[in-house]
Fold this protein.
Amino acid sequence: MSLRVIASEADLAEGAAHLASVCPVWARVLPQLGPLPLRRRADGFGALMSAIVSQQISTAAAASISARLAAAGLDRPQTIMAADDAALRACGLSGQKVRYLRALAGAGIDFDALRLMPDEEVSATLTALPGIGRWTAEMYLIFALGRADTFAPDDLALQEAARLMYGLAERPKGRALAELARPWAPWRAVAARGLWAYYHAAKGREGVT
């Protein structure tokens, strides 16, 4: 399995050229979208902590909680494990998210090793933790590790964008979208960026934060 990563605009351009070469719909749509965004984020504990904090709340609320945690010094595994529940909840975390963050902090994940693992091994490592599902693992692979061929077929915005782009009668659900995306390999993460961009253009709002 290739561990090709998307590290630059040149990588995105190479991936976009591939999509256009294998699919006439992409060939038509990509020029309308313009350059796709790189959207890389730092990997490591902070990326997963942010994902947990952000679950089921607004972007603004998540940013506020994250700022309070950082101000209290509760943004590292050691300090989270040492803090009591009251201190963490005072920053705005629910009891459930306190448990999730403690599990993440105590897991001892080797984030350097994750960079060298195949996608499925990364996903298995992360989804073994409470509070981290497959979608969160896929977002980590796409944006934090920059994996070029990771896709998220259960993402609703990707499903809706594919429905609109391809003129489908209904959203292609998980397995159907994964099958539609098969020819886009080995650049399915570029296709995901393109679909999110298409969703934003069609709906006037971001499909992913």
Remarks:
- The chain has a mean pLDDT of 95.
- The radius of gyration is 18 Å.
- The first helix runs from residue 9 to 22.
- Residues 14 and 66 are 36 Å apart (CA to CA).
